[in-house]
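Format notes (please read before filing issues)

Several people have asked whether sequences and structure tokens are stored in separate files. They are not. Every record keeps both together, in the order shown below: the sequence lines, then the token lines. Line labels are part of the format and must not be stripped during preprocessing.
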Amino acid sequence: MHTRRDILQGMIVSIGGASLLSACSGAVQIVPSSAGVMRFFSDEELQLVSRVSDLIIPRTDTPGALDVNVPGFLDGLMAEWANADTQRNQHRNLRDLSMKLGRDFLELDETTAESRLASLDARAFDGRNSQYSAYRSWKGLITQAYFASEEGRLQEQEWVAVPGRWDSSVEI
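Then the structure lines:
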């Protein structure tokens, strides 16, 4: 069984912060933002991250992304851990994600929003498009933040760390 620190370390390493962890000797502690008190996200960014999080990991017989406060965790991560360059890049990634999903994404009904996100997901992970790195980055952050939570880690039945088909020989 992994500890929360192990999961967090894996998430930070995936963002490129391995050197930060070794320099801090385990002193990194991310305090999730509480509902309505965001330190990194603007209101529009929070709505986008919340909607995408809820569509990627909806509530089923286990808690969903919103139930475990994934947006608050990511806000805390970006506010407390990320340096200024990372913060700028993540704001830029959110603007790019918003454009790719469409400006009306937040007003769409559940079925249409889910369909639009599924279409974006298919294009982002088809192996041919590098223009979807913003979505891939945020999807990774959302799923890793979910599984960093106690509920996500303990109540979820199965997590596929590498979704889709594994091909060890891919042309780059």
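For reference, the curators noted about this record: The radius of gyration is 16 Å. The chain has one domain: 4-155.
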